[in-house]
Design goal:
Elements (H helix, E strand, L loop, with lengths): L11 E5 L8 E5 L4 E5 L2 E5 L4 E8 L9 E7 L4 E5 L1 E5 L2 E4 L1 H17 L5 E4 L3 H27 L3 H24 L3 E2 L12
Helix pairs in contact: 2-3
Length: 195
């Protein structure tokens, strides 16, 4: 079930539940700016007052296909917008179309307002470097285990290591590929970081 509601043509809205307990986080793109309601607080950020947007791919155990947008205001405020919504204790539902449409429209309205926001995607450069170093260390360790298993004739163990490495590469590879640090422009929003 998508929480987005029908609005007049001049407004686009999006809502999601960040946790099972509590009200939905609601956002609306109006002529005045980004209107938001989160946990009893609300406000309107003019489009030219949004100082930064960071898009990223953030899977979690309950939802492997989850995207996130972090918005920063010139006064220091921050808002996170997720592409999934809690439905029940065991179900986190994707809201792919609503999230994608909302993000594209937000970027378009910011561009029309003459925004000079910093637009980045993926992880920070230092975090990404740490992730790559960790993966390189894991690859060396797995290769060492594989060679050892082959030398001592443990072919079942070697097959297990190959299978585990393939599963790990499939799961982590998408995260690393999508979250490569980059800057983008309003007219070139990275499609890999939108559902």
């Amino acid at each position: 079930m998508q929480l987005s509601e029908a609005r007049p043509a001049s407004a686009t809205s999006y809502a999601y539940k960040a946790s099972l307990i509590g009200s939905a986080h609601r956002f609306e793109l109006t002529d005045e700016g980004l209107s938001w309601q989160i946990a009893g607080r609300s406000g309107v950020w003019r489009y030219d007052e949004i100082s930064a947007i960071r898009l990223s791919f953030r899977p979690v155990s309950m939802q492997q296909h989850r995207f996130r947008a972090d918005l920063s205001h010139i006064s220091g405020g921050r808002i996170a917008i997720l592409s999934t919504s809690w439905q029940t204790a065991a179900l986190m539902a994707p809201q792919d179309n609503g999230f994608r449409d909302f993000m594209l429209e937000l970027h378009a309205r910011m561009a029309r307002a003459g925004s000079r926001a910093e637009l980045t995607a993926g992880l920070g450069r230092k975090t990404y470097a740490v992730v790559l170093a960790f993966l390189a260390a894991m690859a060396v360790a797995m290769m060492g285990l594989l060679i050892r298993a082959l030398i001592i004739g443990e072919f079942a163990g070697a097959l297990f290591i190959i299978g585990f490495a393939a599963l790990f590469a499939w799961q982590v590879g998408g995260f690393v590929r999508r979250n490569q640090p980059q800057c983008y422009s309003f007219d070139r929003v990275p499609k890999t970081l939108l559902p």
